[in-house]
Design a protein that fits this description.
single chain, Hypothetical protein af1432, globular, mainly alpha
Amino acid sequence: MRNTVTLLGNLLHPDHSSLSQHPKDVTSIRQYLICLLEDLQYVEETSIHHPESDALFHSLQVYQLALAQSNDPHLHCAALLHDIGKSMDYPNHADVGADAIECYLSPKIVWLIRHHLDLLTRQKRTRRQWKGSKRLIDLEKLRRWDLQGRDVNAEVMCVTAAVDMLLRHYPVISDLSDNY
């Protein structure tokens, strides 16, 4: 399996001195996102929770559900990328995935990826903490799509088509000043 984080460093900043700078090169971001997602095809899921077999197939299903049910590009991005950390550190995939995109995509997307399991692992606390907020509404949508994206017979678009569609909204999803 490729080390995608190292790949990003090589693509965006060959001298590795300023990985925290926001890249201007959409082509490099495109390549990075495609690598992160393609690595998920090697992550086999347990049939009990994920009968659809691999994390890439699942992520593409979740993305397509988000596209069909929302007009928010932040939610689309979080839906597509919510499990990217699984290829690097499965048990801690929410934090690892959020960390992998933190310098490149908006704080809203990072927060959603980091917290996408909260309604599963600490439902009462999460509902109490975010009651009446946009964050809770967005988490509920992402959780619903995550649960629905488990169809073994689903037809999904290819990774490059998904990323290209997402990057049509690059100025919005890459806005690091967007507070959430």
